[in-house]
Amino acid sequence: MPELLLELLSEEIPARMQKRAADDLMRLVSDGLKKAGLEFDAAHSYATPRRLTLVVDGLPDVQPDVSDEKKGPAVGAPEQAINRFLKSNGLDSVDACEVREVKGKPTYFFVVEKKGIPARDILLALMDHVIREVPWPKSMRWGSSLKRWVRPLHSILFVFNGESFSGYFADNGFGSLDLLHDKKTVPLGSVPIGDQTSGHRFLSPQSFTVKDFDDYRAKLEKAHVMLDAGERKTLIQRNADDMAAAKKLTVRPDIGLLDEVAGLVEWPVVLMGSIDAEFMDVPPEVLIAAMRGHQKYFSVLDKDGNLAPHFIMVTHMETSDDGAAIIAGNERVLRARLSDARFFWDVDSKIKLQDRLGDLKDIVFHAKLGTVSEKTQRMESLAAILAKSIDGCDEAEAKRAAKLCKADLVSGMVGEFAALQGLMGGYYARADGETDAVADAIAEHYAPAGPNDSCPELPVSVAVALADKIDTLAGFWAIDEKPTGSKDPFALRR
């Protein structure tokens, strides 16, 4: 049975938007087909950094014929009622009607047979609607066009039952080249529609013609485009694992980064670089944050689970030097990033957490709940009360940890890497000579950060973490900032 193949080729789509957009495209098309009475066997959507693709299998050539029955008055009803029924349906005589029994009474029925519309015509109208309705979180216009898409559209591939539609997508919808007297009069800024697409932007930028999905996928593969995001992820993970294993190392698991990187490349090429030894005495969490956040690198671990002086990167280029120049360039960039991180570490370590407490008065926790400094004062009181109910918890250490736990918010490191708040406070506390219990409590007081995160277990850590969360919940409930079924702006459910 006929197959529909649709591809929307554009500039780079943000990785975080790709899966949702592919799902929305499939949903909109599927709903439109069902509404039009076009049943199909299966639909699949795909996303790469530059394209959204949809294939629908098992479509009919023509929309099914339908019968529209209109019930009229009973036989023998007043002539005025019968004439009104005939007139409303454009009939001259009751001879055009059928007579059926309804509750024992013969009744007039008028049956209209509606011939099905060719599926191709329905699909073209549907595609025009769908492209305008994909709900991007953010979209843009380009040139003088009124069309909107996440990034400028380059072309639309439309193939149904092995045949293409030669046309364009303009502000007023789809247009056919066959209806233009002069092919040069295509509206300015319109997007071409046809049976052509192109491959990898740099490795295979040439256009090629497509007959169906199998042909499309095979030619994309030759043109250095891996269509399926799942396959790209599998390839990246496998090659990264193999590369690390060759040095008796392992890749630090990071599903979120893997998903993101798979959305940044159409043709994944995995490479390994090195970290300069001079940076290895910086806390490993800092190195990981710098590599992950800025450069999208995977960290690698040695057999003891410690951070190794290497990183895994994913590019989309195959080069004659096996990536040597790319690796050197990325190592140079990373060196600059880590130099900044080391600077923050060195400078922050010179200022004790105790000496940073005054700066917390300048940070507003919430307009109705005061500053972060005031929050830590409330936490001190709560931690002291909780310590009495927690076995092995030292009240003085609990109060001390609660007092210092937010001080790292004004450090340079946390200003650069917000995800390290608390954790860096623990490092700074140890450097300041605080006890291990106090340092651990500071490092762990934000935990658990989510359903998969582990909870603090040490007595002082439990007291401070509970004090933080109890203060937050009690405060927001007191000012009537409660989460609802549709929104939770302060993540209180967590």
Question: What does the model show?
Answer:
The structure is a single chain. With 494 residues, the chain is an alpha+beta fold. The protein has 4 domains: 4-61 and 118-222; 66-114, no CATH class; 229-348, no CATH class; 353-478, Orthogonal Bundle (Hypothetical protein af1432), CATH 1.10.3210.10. The protein is 39% helix and 20% strand. It has 15 helices and 19 strands. The strands form 5 sheets. Strands 1, 2, 3, 7, 8, 9, 10 and 11 form an 8-stranded mixed beta sheet that branches. It has a 4-stranded antiparallel beta sheet with strand order 14-16-17-15, with helices on both faces. It has a 3-stranded antiparallel beta sheet with strand order 4-6-5, with helices on one face. α10 packs antiparallel against α11, α10 packs across α15 (459-478) and α11 packs across α14. The longest helix has 25 residues, at 324-348. It starts with a strand and ends in a 16-residue tail after the last helix. The mean pLDDT is 93.
